[in-house]
Design brief:
Helix 1 links the parallel strand 3 and strand 4. This protein has one domain: Glutaredoxin (3-Layer(aba) Sandwich). The longest helix is centred in the first third of the chain and has 12 residues. The chain is built from 4 helices and 6 strands. With 157 residues, the chain is an alpha+beta fold.
Length: 157
């Protein structure tokens, strides 16, 4: 199984195959709108503006598992991100990243790159960087701001 065998629901509720991102560099982020790391949306948007036309895709996957910091509906989350941070990259439906009902994409990502807590996602804004061939090449902690990932993204593009 590869990353391209997975699909995930958009904020609008339609399933999107990650095969649609074949040949792109992906930065997959579990996000939250009420988190101390929420201002990272600004840096994510800056990366997308700089490199989106060069093949970078940012996949924003809200998660309410950590302190209930992604309250609201998918539409409310999208509205917040667009109005507050000018987000133009694709936003997906709120999902579960750890545990019995976790999104299969996250089961795959965590198996590819274990973090400091073994396989579990530690908190909101954990980031996975995927190269153009679908390989999960890096996992970044929530405390790693998007600008610290820019050099690696440029190398992969």
């Amino acid at each position: 199984m590869t990353i391209y065998d997975h699909s995930i629901k958009t904020a609008e509720g339609t399933a999107v195959s990650l095969n649609d991102y074949r040949g792109k560099v992906m930065l997959i982020v579990n996000t939250a709108t009420g988190c101390g790391f929420t201002p990272q949306y600004e840096g994510l948007q800056e990366l997308y503006e700089k490199y989106g036309d060069k093949g970078l895709e940012i996949l924003d996957i809200p998660c309410n598992q950590f302190g209930g910091q992604a309250p609201g509906s998918d539409d409310e989350i999208a509205d917040f991100c667009q109005s507050r941070y000018g987000v133009t990259f694709r936003q997906f439906a709120k999902t579960i990243v750890n545990g019995e009902n976790e999104e299969p994409l996250y089961t795959y990502l965590k198996a590819q790159k274990k973090g400091v807590m073994g396989g579990s996602i530690k908190w909101n804004f954990t980031k996975f960087l995927v190269d153009r061939n679908g390989n999960v090449v890096e996992r970044y902690s929530p405390t790693t701001p998007p600008e610290k990932i820019e050099k690696r993204i440029k190398e992969l593009l």
